[in-house]
Batch of 2 targets.
Target 1
Amino acid sequence: MAITPLMPVYPRCEVRPVRGEGVYLYGENGEKYLDFASGIAVNLLGHGHPHLTKAIQKQAETLMHVSNLYGSPQGEAFAQRIVDNTFADTVFFTNSGAEAVECAIKTARRYHHAGGNPHKHDLITFKNAFHGRTMATISATDQEKLRDGFAPLLPGFKVVEFDNLDAALAAIDEHTAGFLVEPVQGEGGIRPASKEFMTGLRKACDEHDLMLVLDEVQCGVARTGYLYAYEYYGITPDILASAKGIGGGFPMGACLATEKAARGMVIGTHGSTYGGNPLAMAAGEAVFDVVANEEFLAHVRQTGERLRSALEQMIPNHDHLFESVRGLGMMLGIKMKTDSRAFVNWLRSEGILLVAAGDNVVRVLPPLTIDDGDIREFVHGLSAAADKYRIPEAA
Ligand SMILES: *Cc1c(COP(=O)(O)O)cnc(C)c1O
């Protein structure tokens, strides 16, 4: 048999982690890696954070899973905490980011259905967006590599240029339900939308009774130095998808909505077997214990600023490779002058883990708990690796 037991949909690299500790990952044979990728913005607290690990251990011993047919003291408590800390009035818990976006899409359509406007079912989405790998979430992008071979896709999405307010407004018609947008595109290359764009979308939604749906799966949960990135933009959404960092490594997600936006999500309209189970709630609460306070968010903004300026100071020494640094908080991208994937591969062999993104960007997504010593180690290692790097011929 030629096929591998693990379905071969990932180009898996030579790094084979078996253990993690803080900012470090260790491979099968004891290799040590500095992990500034954090499982793609997931391990907010690094690896093996005692508060998170203990919370999961304790909950696993007490009660792991019950059906959503029963009352959920754990889900009610965590949902209340999210409501207290955000724009939202209500929360649906999922197991992943794509499911959170899926719930967000359903909530937006259902809002108009409940308002007697079932023809308002189209979401305007944006070029180079990434919303997940389900049929609905690949239908919501224009990225051919995600969609190839999966037709027929789901109708009801209209893709326009990102961060171009005129294009977004021109796309509104009588079928428009709202906008689905990442305030900071992750996969697409760490591109923060402008404030004018985000406030313009909010204004259009108010004027035309549309839903502003934010995909904060990657940029949410303190990553940008704000609990959610919409706070940086000075707006509030109607619906928001959260995941990745929210469980600190435990698989979970959430769809947040205002009471008005969720008016169609009544009994029987949606569900999930695992979503919001007590173990996930314990993980989410433990992450919030650490990150959902002004002191920690200020640490993310300040440390993110120092990381950014350390990277900016390094660039002139390697200006044949690096162009600029962009992003918000600890969601940073280094725009390269050469193929970023090849460089990320090279960094792995030098013991540094980062993730490539679109537009020849290298994503820098460290655990939010890093300190100045970690920054020094990272920038020093990155600079030394860049010194040794030979740009591949074919790239
Ligand atoms: C990762 C990601 C998703 C999908 O999350 P999964 O947990 O992989 O389903 C959706 N949207 C954005 C912005 C993401 O970065």
Target 2
Amino acid sequence: MKLEFVSIVATFALFRSVFGVKRELFKTCEQNGFCHRNRHLANAISNKHGSYSSPYSVDETSIRISEEVSAIEGSIMKKLPNGKAVELPFTIEVLKSDNIRLTIDEKERSDPKSLRVADKRFKSRRFNEASKYALKGEPEISVNAKLTKESITDKSTGEKYLSIIYGDESEYEAQITLSPFKITVYYHGQPEIILNDRNFFNIEHWRTQDQQASELSPEETDYGTFKDEFKDSQGDHLPFGPESIGVDVSFIGYDKVFGIPEHADTFSLKDTTNDDPYRLFNVDIFEYETQSKFPMYGSIPFMVAQKKSATAGLFWINAADTYVDIKKGSPAQSNPDQIVLTSEKSTKTHWFSEAGILDLIIMVDKSPLAINKKYGELSGNPELPQLFTLGYHQCRWNYNDVDDVLDVSEKFDNFEIPYDVIWLDIEYTENKKYFTWKKGLFDDHVEMNKKLAETGRNLVAIIDPHIKTDYQVSNDIEKQGLGIKNSDNDDTYHGHCWPGESVWIDTFNPKSKAYWNKLFANNTDFSGDETNLHIWNDMSEPSVFSGPETTAPKDIVHYGGWEHRSVHNAYGLTFHEATYDAMSKRYVNKRPFILTRAYYAGSQRSAAMWSGDNKSKWEFLKISLPMALTSQVVGMPFTGSDVGGFFGDPSSELLTRWYQAGIWYPFFRGHAHIDSKRREPYIAGEPYTSIMRDAIRLRYSLLPVFYTGFHHASITNAPIITPLFYSNPENEDCYEIEDEFFVADSGLLVKPVTQEGATSVSIYIPDEKPYFDYHTHELIQGKGSHDLQAELEQIPILMQGGHIFSRKDRYRRSSKLMKYDPYTLVVALDEEGSAKGSLYIDDGETFDYKKDDDFVYVDFAIKDNKLQSSVNVGKQTPFTELLDKVKVEKIIIVGKDISFSSSAKVSQNGENWEAETIGINNNAFIIRNPAVAINKSWTIELN
Ligand SMILES: *[C@@H]1O[C@H](CO)[C@@H](O)[C@H](O)[C@H]1NC(C)=O
Ligand SMILES: *[C@@H]1O[C@H](CO)[C@@H](O)[C@H](O)[C@H]1NC(C)=O
Ligand SMILES: *[C@@H]1O[C@H](CO)[C@@H](O)[C@H](O)[C@H]1NC(C)=O
């Protein structure tokens, strides 16, 4: 959902342009103390053109090297202008899979005796638990790293450094320069990443306001160190004063960088020299603009850099307000003070966060897929969702009552449009009290859900973290101390959101989670014993209408004595994890489905995400594609945007094009604002309704492709919609392409139409392989742009030669009813007449695939006119045996110069038979009803 139609905002909107409202409510970098200071410092250092001398160096006597745990420990000393020094303990570890992790803390703050903050409710130490949320567990340590025993002196520069050589073939080296502190990571002898290349490394040490003047260097400013100048933040106590951390990171020879969502911006990130940096700070950014570096609902502080020979990743593990500055260009154009190691183009970045320890992981590998895998090993792969979640979701703010819900459901069936899930936004509740249902309108909600279940449908109901004051749930939260607390006393913090005055459940507190669990249990006020109820967690940034920048004040207090400032970006994750936990207890052996708006690194382990409150405009349809691609790069692939746009009324043409694009979003949901007209796909009338129905049916026929894609993602963190450079990392021309993509590894290349009135599109083909039009099988070949017809009823889709994928072509009302439907195999041959593919099948609902190996994995391959299926994983269970009755009903073989045309000899399970074929027609050879069972291997010889 939603724009906050809080009266203040609405009043602003009346008198100011939308642009004005935004600038008023959100801080610019200039206005945000730590951003202002870190940029100021970086500019001052750059302006000194190399004559700046960094105050940070490693104390050589402090170094402890342990080969056993692949780690170097020691202290960096920060020299202050008054002669004092600040001790900053660091650890550099080599992790399994050849990643380097650096953490830097501040000695004085980690010593409990040195507590200087008067308020004992705060922990004095820097927040060091972001990794608890961003990582799936403690990362394993490398077993093959070779660490120098002592420092080495570089003969040419005289600099001392420590060296770590790692990787199976010793292909990596990390050099840690002692003074000034710097890390350079080499891969196959080439420098790839340099930390503190430009000397922007900065740890704002603990000081009092009185000490500050003598402890600031001439390059620093005291702007906002002890008071927040931003008008809505006057109340921020800044109990720790300035405490930001920052460092610059140069990607050597890398021209393009991606990731660090969420921004409504291009896929390939832009230079920020003459703009604000990209900001990562979860906020309810209603009325947002496209092409903007403004923060949005979620944050994943992970950046990926791509060049021909390698891919690099930087994972910045910090949950506080964070910015990233990006400077592009060849060394010749860049500042002369910068250390230049190669003549190639490079991207120089500068990262800083408002609080917390410095904790980051550096990855380099040969391909983007390898970096996805490394990220997944650390942060966790996306969980395999229930199959129904990949069907179509119908939402609006709001469906009014039980009859309305059942009426919409029936209309889908009347128009033979499949759908799986209907959604209820906030109005289903009694006065926006979550866990209640509006009296008179939703009394029969349990029966309603059971009725939906009869056709395999599910219901998703919204539950937000703001809890209206003065009813059972908020009373419990206040009485039991389960809410976020005030900054200046131990009472529960109160603010405003949808219900008016509210409290916020503090899901960092294990007791809050236990309480949350109970609310979702069977047979309570909230629900009966139905098993098709799922949850939407919205407004979880958290959105606080009365708060600074529409969110929680930074100095309110969470469980464990942490300031909200330090944990902000992880709050939404703890909230949806609490809901996930509750739902996994409610449904003992069922994969919970949770949709979240706010997210953080790690959210992929338990939630899907959507991109928030879109406008019904062409530019928002367009920007939804790069945003979805960015999510694939940062390991949060289960994402989509509101089909049709959230605000406003799309034209029938825009709505139709949005469905044709939306069927490719991993998460496919139509949604609309309360003031928008009804726009379920059957409303527009002909020809639109039929075109939208065909698009939705195409999604359903390709569910085996999406589900197999999610299976792979759950193991290797592979994308669901795949940016072109993933399959063509050597082709620099395709790095920035953001309006087309492959679907998982099926070879389907799609370019949705996002232009009003278009009747054709130009599609870019990234390689020399043969491609075939999805519908006509026409051959299109040659690297470069090709024009494709794209009348309103046409979606530009090509099949890349070399792939085999599976479909289920029969119309059913929901995915559940398709469970035992037969398959159609589509084979697209490459130049050699070969192709490969795979299909993953399980019960689509439970964890039995994990617990009992209850699944079937089929590899398909064709070579030398022999098509083969090998069932090679899983084991025999009652479910996989049932799959014996699931047959392949059709095989479509598409190719350039097909060398068979008459017969198809089938063999399965020791039996042989001849299948009916249709000779070659327009590049395609069709086998009718080969009647092979999907759960055991077979071969088909073609002649
Ligand atoms: C809730 O009800 C479902 C369906 O009856 C049942 O499978 C599940 O075990 C119940 N959960 C609990 C916690 O009782
Ligand atoms: C529109 O689209 C993007 C992605 O599709 C989404 O994240 C964002 O919240 C939407 N924009 C607006 C103004 O609602
Ligand atoms: C497929 O079903 C048949 C017949 O029930 C059974 O013999 C076979 O083992 C099944 N295959 C798998 C992988 O379970």
